[in-house]
């Protein structure tokens, strides 16, 4: 069984090769057009992200973003007055975000650094923002301790965690995908699933793993069904678990967002936008936590 350091290395290698959201654009990598297309797609699919960012007063605030992807949220935060520093465990995301800031003429520092070993002085930041990153850190408790240390008293934490009480986890990952993995052994099922709009490459890899006929732990199955069939580590949190994770903070909001209709292929496209929003606010995949340091 891998230890936390080994898992962290595999997580680092994964994002180094494929910074978050980079699959949203087929334009020349790290070109201005690439960043604009990623931005359009990110906020089209996950419109709540822009709303969450825009509801925060960033003006003149020192901001630390943990896990920057290709710098989409960074550009929005800086554009609203944040004094920005971003960190990534991997070089690929760090380079992508630094290139994005340079391409759009925006100020800010982007560093390759480990969230479990932050080297910033105590009380360095007014806001720490981390969207969809903490659940990928094997030693997440240590990362949270560092976040609390570098925040000023009364400083704000905004974090997205994958939600245990979501349709994506409670229905899809725990049940439907396990049935689907078995069904992929039946001739013709893979082609049918592809025709229904499901991703052929991921399904083929899941079929290959199923053929190995070995039992997966619940933790491994979860990890392989979040960011891809070879993803090494991920967790999910319900409201109580999220509150416990941030026990050193005063929780101001702990809410669900985002029903990801893409997981349902062509059927998902038939779900009206209003219903998608309602499903997301009740059983969404993204658990958004707003908290303040005591």
Quick recap of the structure?
This protein is α/β, with parallel strands linked by helices.
Please give a structural write-up.
The chain has 294 residues and is of the alpha/beta class. Helix content is 46%, strand content 17%. It has 13 helices and seven strands. It has helices at residues 4-17, 32-45, 47-54, 72-79, 91-103, 140-150, 167-183, 189-195, 200-211, 218-224, 239-245, 265-269, 273-283, and strands at 62-66, 83-88, 109-112, 125-131, 151-162, 249-257, 286-293. Helix 6 (140-150) links the parallel strand 4 (125-131) and strand 5 (151-162). Helix 2 packs across helix 3 (47-54). The longest helix is centred in the middle third of the chain and has 17 residues, at 167-183. The mean pLDDT is 95.
Tag the structure with descriptive keywords:
single chain; 294 residues; 7 strands
Name the beta content range.
15-25%
- SSE series: HHHEHEHEEHEHHHHHEHHE
Largest sheet strand order: 3-2-1-4-5-7-6
Helix content: 40-55%
Counting H and I runs of at least 4 residues, what is the number of helices?
Answer: 13
**Whole-number average pLDDT?**
95
Q: What class, by secondary structure content? A: alpha/beta
The overall strand count is 7
Shape: globular
pLDDT below 50 for ≥5 consecutive residues: which ranges? Answer: none
State Rg.
19 Å
Distance between the termini: 37 Å
Can you summarize the main beta sheet? 7 strands, mixed
